[in-house]
Amino acid sequence: MQTVIQLDQLCKRYGNTTAVDHITMQVNKGEIFGIVGPNGAGKTTLIEMLEGLRLPDSGSATVLGLDIRKHAMEIKQRIGVLLQATSMPEKAKVREVLQMFASLYHKSTDPKEISAFLGLEDKQNAFIKSLSGGWKQRVSLALALINDPEILFLDEPSMGLDPNARKEMWDMIHRLKKDGRTIVVTTHYMEEAEYLCDRIAVISHGKLVALDTPQKLISMLGGTKRISFKNAGVTGKESFAGLPFVVDVEWETDTVKLHSSQIDETLQALFRLAAEEGWMVSGLRLEDASMNDVFTEMTASGKGIAG
Ligand code: ADP
Question: Which atom of ligand 1 is nearest to the CA of 39?
Fold first, then answer.
């Protein structure tokens, strides 16, 4: 497997804050690599160093074999970046914006080819300001692809998109991978991370706390399952936490979710408790653990499992 990004003890500090704290990891050619973590975890700082936009304080990193300190300009020519808010001239047409961006690079793909790939042919004469959020995001993606990049960095690619536009964005990202590109994506949506990514790095307080496939990360939680039901408003959180094999309780006004390592035993105890207290267990659902649980457990407690 070919490594296209290599980080070795990479660090970035702002005053007393260590935004990126000794991160060592690698990204393989052709994979969709996710970076997840709470706000302020250091994700943006990390990818902006790889994009050549910020300099590290210590440690090292290479992108496509090029040192990020010495070859930022060359790296920029060979990567594509989808920012959260790409500023585009609102009064320009899609075709004009694509041509303008193409002229900025040594190497560029024919905007027509990219437009065909992303389904933008019918929007060539549309003004940027007339486009919906989903179409604007598609144009931003086209701009990120204009230099035919080997690595594509996507920062929150489906932020603010409606569910249909989000699915379309995921479909396009999958097709870009099939096209042989490496994709690094930061996201807040754990469903997106689980669906899209081959491997996911979980970052918390600047540190890498876990790095693996979504399936392995989920299985590291020890096979706990979730029992979700309507909150009858009778039992307190502590009583649920005291039920056998309950390892965690998610408590909301309308729903309670028990994380259990022995679902049968917990269910029996739950029904006994409800009978004793005179309420009905309703809206019962059993769920497997998901990336959401990985995110909550690994970033809330600060514990890590990365090697
Ligand atoms: P994320 O993208 O995960 O939300 P960031 O990389 O934006 O995290 O931020 C990581 C930490 O570094 C935060 O504590 C943030 O406040 C701090 N930080 C980010 N950029 C700057 C900056 N330019 N100056 C000072 N502190 C910064």
Answer: 4
Domain 223-288 bears CATH identifier 3.30.230: no
Residue to mutate (ligand 1; options 12, 14, 186; most atoms within 8 A of CB): 14
* Contact 45 CB / ligand 1 (< 6 Å): yes
pLDDT digits (tens, 9 = 90+) for 168-224: 889 999 999 998 999 999 998 888 999 999 999 999 999 999 999 998 998 887 777
Asked whether the beta carbons of 240 and 246 are under 8 A apart, the reply is: yes
pLDDT per position as a tens digit, 45-77? 999 999 999 999 999 999 999 999 999 999 999
CB-ligand 1 contact for 44 (6 Å cutoff): yes
Give the residue whose CA is nearest to atom 6 of ligand 1. 42
**What is the maximum alpha-carbon separation in the chain?**
74
Q: Give the pair of three-digit tokens for residue 119.
A: 């389904």
Q: Is 17 in the pocket of ligand 1 (CB under 6 A)?
A: yes
Measured in angstroms, how far is the CA atom of residue 151 from the centroid of ligand 1? 23
Q: Which is it for strands 32-36 and 199-204: parallel, antiparallel or unpaired?
A: parallel
* Contact call for residues 94 and 125 (beta carbons, < 8 A): yes
Whether the CB of 43 sits within 6 Å of ligand 1: yes
Contact assessment for residue 201 and residue 211, using Cβ atoms and an 8 Å cutoff? yes
Tell me, which fold does domain 3-218 have in CATH? Rossmann fold (3.40.50)
User: Is 40 touching ligand 1 by the criterion CB < 6 Å?
Assistant: yes
Q: Kindly state the DSSP code that residue 38 receives in the 8-state scheme.
A: -
* pLDDT score, position 19: 97
0.90 exceeded by the pTM? Answer: no
Domain boundaries, the chain: 3-218, 223-288
**How far apart are the CA of 44 and the centre of ligand 1, in A?**
7
37: left (phi over 0), alpha (psi -120 to 50) or beta: left
